[in-house]
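User: quick one, fold this
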Amino acid sequence: MKPIHRFTTFLFLSILLLPVAFAQRMYDGSGSPIGRVDAERFYSASGQQIGRVDGERVYDGSGRQLGRIDGDRVYNASGSQIGRIDGDRLYSASGSQMGRIDGERLYDGSGRQIGRADGLRRMQMIVFFYFFM
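Assistant:
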């Protein structure tokens, strides 16, 4: 196969496989896989879609709105504030620290590691923490 044909074939396959190739994995505190994120969609370890993000709104796998994130405030589907984000720290509506993000690791309020995410953006980790853990 000529080099240009190999390159074209590689480019075409890369585009077709892009969502699968860049899926980011989520793990629980013991290192067991609990799911993955493909762009703005969240999947369980078994591959079932459990949620998605559309702008600031968060939905479960059935398409039901779970809540939204507006700036540093996190709201449930009823519009009640359930949390707040301050830097890498996550707080409940009452102000107690629920967790924090340190690099690719998630910690609960007591400092125990509860998860790890390979290469996820900060907002994806916040959505996962508040709505899917």
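User: anything notable?
Assistant: The first strand starts at residue 24 and ends at 28.
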